[in-house]
Design a protein that fits this description.
Blueprint: E1 3-7, H1 11-22, E2 26-30, H2 34-41, H3 52-62, E3 65-68, H4 71-77, E4 80-83, H5 98-110, E5 115-119, H6 127-139, E6 146-150, H7 160-165, E7 170-173, H8 177-186, H9 188-192, E8 197-200, H10 202-233, H11 237-245, H12 266-279, H13 285-309, E9 319-323, H14 338-348, E10 352-356, H15 361-367, E11 375-377, H16 381-385, E12 390-393, H17 405-411, E13 416-419, H18 428-431, E14 435-437
Parallel strand pairs: 1-2, 1-4, 2-3, 4-5, 5-6, 7-8, 9-10, 9-12, 10-11, 12-13, 13-14
Helix pairs in contact: 1-3, 4-5, 5-6, 10-12, 10-13, 12-13, 13-14
Bound molecules: 1,4-dihydronicotinamide adenine dinucleotide and uridine-5'-diphosphate-glucuronic acid (UGA).
Length: 452
């Protein structure tokens, strides 16, 4: 049986390790964050991801999932090592590969046999080859070899476990038979399940990851631009998306207009590929436009609220209830969430801001320190809306569907409802109580009630 090592236990590494342990592999997960490792050893997941804690606990119980802060242990006990550390954006948009290189150095230092090293983190084209060259250099004069492959991850947060169990595809960029054979063993279950596999070279695998994320970002920015136009010309963006999506060359997916994309990946990966383009003398105009349109979208959402609610050109004296802080539902991740910029915009225009999020409050208090003392955190969507002039729904959490609209509306001072996700478009129970402002349409099939 293959011994698997995972370096970095974030959204990708932890889920990958836990899923592989559920297939019976002995998996050692390593992280430099000792507190995280301690919690993991107690069976507590440091992140909110549906189904993860159960997998974690069963792996620990079965004894085939081990957590350690020791790089030596993970390197020496594993036949295959997945690098799953963060690759965040630097100030200039390029990918910060310092965590990747820390890990590679640890591998080079502790290596005690032939190993397959797999880049699972999203890394600019050429990184896996550089890692291979670096390790070859370090291993010169030893009997050991490192076979480096690129195996990008395509999971979505909030669906990380189910995406890992049933991925859309497995892309393997490898240039040695040892690496290919090892990854076929690791992904034997997926091969049996007829998950599509693509074997290619490392550069192509790395590019597929950036190309996929950038293309999805382009799709979102495209529909968001059309949403802004639709509001002006009396068209409805949801019907436009449906109509476009009926053509299977376009597909209906990722055409959901909203407040702009966020998260730890689209914003950084679009910037990183533009940076790679520039460094190689190829300006990526389409991706650049998607980034610019995304910034415009967030700013437009703030202007829309301001234009609707202001009496004297500002939002002074207005209270806004923001529902949802995470960049999408079913995650506790607030990284690059559009909620942050919308809250900043509202505060900047003088509004008082109350917020509620089913999972994002802990992270927001911890990381959005500049907002501490400037916004009011609330225990529920109902409490958040008390005495507010408007609700701004930023994240489409399912639990919002169960809200008691009459009670919420009666507890408010005003009745504006900005639905940045079109979650309640055409929902009579919401339209009955609120003046409803969707994204990309002036109305959705029901007459709007005038403000009281
Ligand atoms: N979050 C997501 O949904 C997806 C992320 N990715 C990519 O996967 C990579 C990881 O992303 P996340 O899991 O979100 O990151 P994360 O920030 O959640 O986790 C990274 C982990 O690496 C650890 N770490 C840092 N330096 C280390 C070192 N020297 N040795 C061991 N551990 C170390 C950190 O303590 C942290 O726990 C990134 O390149 C990202 O672009 C790819 C697909 C999906
Ligand atoms: O590389 C990554 O990290 C991952 O990035 C995204 O996954 P994720 O960031 O978890 O979330 P998405 O569901 O893609 O949503 C990203 C952002 O786009 C927004 N979005 C998405 C879809 C849509 O139609 N409209 C829209 O505004 C979401 O609200 C969210 O803010 C990709 O979907 C994954 O395939 C990829 O592995």
């Amino acid at each position: 049986m293959v011994n698997v090592g995972v370096m970095g236990t974030g959204y990708v590494g932890l889920v990958h390790g836990a899923v592989l342990s559920s297939y019976g592999f002995r998996v050692t997960c390593m992280d430099v964050d000792k507190q995280k490792i301690e919690r993991l050893n107690q069976g507590i997941s440091p992140i909110y991801e549906p189904g993860l804690e159960e997998l974690l606990q069963s792996g620990l119980r079965a004894g085939n999932l081990v957590f350690t802060a020791s790089a030596q242990q993970v390197v020496q006990t594993s036949d295959v090592l997945f690098i799953a550390v963060g690759t965040p954006a630097k100030e200039d948009g390029s990918a910060d590969l310092s965590y990747v290189w820390d890990v590679v150095q640890q591998i080079g230092k502790h290596i005690n046999g032939h190993k397959v090293i797999v880049s699972k983190s999203t890394m600019p084209v050429g990184t896996s080859r550089s890692i291979a060259m670096y390790l070859d250099g370090m291993l010169r004069g030893t009997p050991y070899r490192a076979h480096v492959a690129s195996n990008p991850e395509f999971l979505r947060q909030g669906k990380a476990v189910s995406d890992s169990l049933s991925p859309s595809r497995v892309v393997i960029g490898a240039e040695s038979d040892e690496a290919v054979q090892m990854l076929k063993k690791v992904y034997a279950t997926h091969l049996e399940q007829d998950v599509p596999f693509l074997f290619t070279n490392r550069e192509t695998a790395e590019m597929i990851k950036y190309a996929s994320n950038s293309f999805l970002a382009v799709k979102i920015s495209f529909i968001n631009e059309l949403a802004l136009l639709s509001e002006k010309v009396g068209a409805k963006i949801q019907d436009i998306a449906t109509g476009m999506g009926m053509d299977d060359r376009i597909s209906p997916h990722f055409l959901q207009a909203g407040p702009g994309y966020g998260g730890s990946c689209f914003p950084k990966d679009t910037q990183a590929i533009v940076d790679v383009g520039r460094k190689n003398g190829e300006e990526l105009y389409v991706v650049r436009a998607a980034i610019a349109a995304n910034e415009k979208q967030k700013a437009k959402m703030v202007s829309k609220i301001e234009e609707t609610l202001s009496f004297d050109g500002t939002l002074k004296g207005r209270t806004v209830a923001v529902w949802g802080l995470t960049f999408k539902p079913d995650t506790d991740d607030i990284r690059y969430s559009p909620s942050y910029e919308i809250i900043q915009g509202l505060l900047g225009r003088g509004a008082a801001v109350k917020v509620y999020c089913p999972q994002g409050m802990k992270q927001a208090k911890l990381y959005w320190t500049d907002l501490n003392g400037r916004i009011q955190y609330c225990g529920s969507e109902a409490e958040c809306s008390q005495q507010a002039d408007a609700i701004v729904l930023m994240t489409e959490w399912e639990q919002f569907r169960a809200a008691n609209w009459e009670k919420i509306a009666r507890g408010m001072r005003g009745n504006a409802f900005f639905d940045m996700r079109n979650m309640f478009a055409g929902d009579a129970s919401v339209l009955q109580w609120f003046k409803y402002y969707p994204v990309g349409a002036s109305e959705y099939g029901y007459p709007l009630r005038e403000a009281q």
